[in-house]
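queue> pop job 88
queue> type: inverse folding (structure -> sequence)
queue> payload:
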C-alpha cells in the first residue's frame, strides 16, 4: 500500500474522530492545523525572495480564535471585519516605512491573512451553531464537499481529461476533471442531507444542499487553483512534507478553507 493511501486513510480517521467529538477537541486540532498551514505559506513566500510582515496576521489569528469560539455569530463577523481593516492598516504602515519598500511585499504580507488565517475562523464559527446535529452537518459539508470533489476530479481527469483547465497554473488539471469534481461535490452534499434525514437532524430544505454542493465545489476548486498559483510563483512543488505523498498541511487544506468559508457564510443568511 502506497504512502499516499496510508496517509490519506490516517487523515480521514483523524477527521472522523474530530467531527465525532466536536467541541474543544475539534477546535484544538483545527487551530493546530491552521497554525502549521500559516507557517508553511509564510515560509514559502520568504524562500521566494519576498519579505512578508507576518506578525500582524498571527496577531489577528490569535485575537479571532476566542472571538469565534465565544461570541455570538453577528458579533464575531463584526470582529472579523475589524481585524481585516486593522491588519491591513498595520501591515501597510510597516511595509511602507521599511528600507526599500515594495508593493509586492504588501501583497504577500496580506495574502496569508485572506487565504489561510481568516477563512479558517469560519470553522470555529460553525462549532457554535445550534443544534449540535446541524453543526455536525455543516462541518461535514465544509470538509466533504471539497474532499469528494477533489477525488472525483482526480480520477476522472487522469482517465478522461483532455482539455486543460489552466495549463500555466496547474498543467494536470482538466475541464473534464473540474466538471466531474463539481458533480462529486453535489453528490457529497446530497449524501450528507440523506444522512441528516436518517438521524432526524433539523436541517434546511434539500435545495440548499444542492446550492452548497455547487457553490462549495466551485469555491474549493478556486482555492486549489490559487494554492497552485502561489506554489508555482514560489517555485515549490508542495508547501511542506509533513504528510508523505500529500505534501504539507496547506496542500490538504487549500480547497477546504475556501469551501468552509462559503458554507459558514451561507448558513448565516437570514432565510436559511
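queue> result:
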Amino acid at each position: 500500500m502506497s504512502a499516499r493511501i496510508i496517509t490519506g486513510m490516517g487523515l480521514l480517521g483523524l477527521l472522523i474522530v474530530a467531527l465525532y467529538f466536536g467541541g474543544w477537541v475539534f477546535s484544538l486540532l483545527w487551530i493546530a492545523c491552521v497554525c502549521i498551514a500559516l507557517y508553511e505559506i509564510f515560509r514559502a513566500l520568504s524562500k521566494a525572495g519576498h519579505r512578508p510582515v507576518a506578525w500582524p496576521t498571527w496577531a489577528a489569528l490569535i485575537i479571532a480564535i476566542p472571538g469565534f469560539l465565544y461570541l455570538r455569530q453577528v458579533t464575531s463577523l463584526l470582529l472579523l471585519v475589524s481585524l481585516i481593516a486593522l491588519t491591513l492598516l498595520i501591515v501597510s504602515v510597516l511595509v511602507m516605512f521599511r528600507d526599500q519598500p515594495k508593493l509586492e511585499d504588501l501583497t504577500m504580507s496580506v495574502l496569508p491573512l485572506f487565504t489561510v488565517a481568516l477563512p479558517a475562523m469560519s470553522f470555529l464559527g460553525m462549532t457554535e451553531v445550534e443544534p449540535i446535529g446541524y453543526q455536525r452537518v455543516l462541518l461535514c459539508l465544509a470538509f466533504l464537499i471539497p474532499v469528494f470533489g477533489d477525488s472525483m476530479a482526480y480520477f476522472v481527469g487522469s482517465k478522461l481529461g483532455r482539455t486543460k483547465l489552466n495549463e500555466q497554473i496547474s498543467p494536470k488539471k482538466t475541464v473534464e476533471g473540474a466538471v466531474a469534481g463539481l458533480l462529486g461535490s453535489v453528490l457529497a452534499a446530497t449524501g450528507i442531507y440523506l444522512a441528516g434525514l436518517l438521524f432526524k437532524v433539523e436541517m434546511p430544505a434539500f435545495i440548499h444542499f444542492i446550492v452548497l454542493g455547487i457553490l462549495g465545489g466551485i469555491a474549493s476548486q478556486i482555492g486549489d487553483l490559487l494554492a497552485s498559483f502561489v506554489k508555482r510563483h514560489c517555485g515549490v512543488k508542495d508547501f511542506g512534507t509533513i504528510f508523505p505523498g500529500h505534501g504539507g498541511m496547506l496542500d490538504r487544506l487549500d480547497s477546504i478553507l475556501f469551501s468552509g468559508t462559503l458554507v459558514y457564510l451561507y448558513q448565516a443568511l437570514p432565510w436559511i
